[in-house]
Specification:
- The chain is mainly α.
- It is built from 4 helices and 2 strands.
- The protein has a two-stranded antiparallel ribbon.
- A hairpin with a 5-residue loop joins strand 1 (22-23) and strand 2 (29-30).
- Helix 3 (46-74) packs antiparallel against helix 4 (78-105).
- The longest helix has 29 residues, at 46-74.
- The radius of gyration is 15 Å and the shape is elongated.
- It starts with a helix and ends with a helix.
Length: 106
């Protein structure tokens, strides 16, 4: 079904060639959704799916911010650091928007 394809396409590292997985300091996958959570998403529809999608997407963005922040701390190339800054700023703004929607729709 299209929803299942969409769910899998937004979840980094799941059936997506070339996906990048990031790891936080304790070694858990940052910004990724686990198999159990994915199975739960597969059971949702309508508003429940929408809200779970927003949660998953916010989590993904937080993982991207983590990776970009590491570039800002440890990177040496100005162009790449500039990209990382744009990524952090953009994803934070998107998370704020998603959080606002979740508050309004719960």
């Amino acid at each position: 079904p299209p929803d299942a394809l969409l769910k899998r396409s937004i979840i980094p590292g799941r059936d997506v060639p070339g996906a990048v997985r990031t790891r936080n300091s304790v070694g858990s996958a940052a910004g990724l959704i686990g198999e159990e959570q994915l199975n739960q998403l597969d059971q949702l529809q309508g508003k429940a799916f929408d809200l779970a999608f927003l949660d998953a997407f916010s989590s993904h963005h937080r993982g991207v911010i983590e990776l970009a922040s590491k570039e800002l701390r440890e990177g040496s190339l100005g162009e790449v650091k500039q990209l990382a800054r744009q990524v952090v700023d953009g994803r934070k703004a998107e998370i704020d928007q998603l959080d606002g929607w979740k508050r309004a729709w719960r």
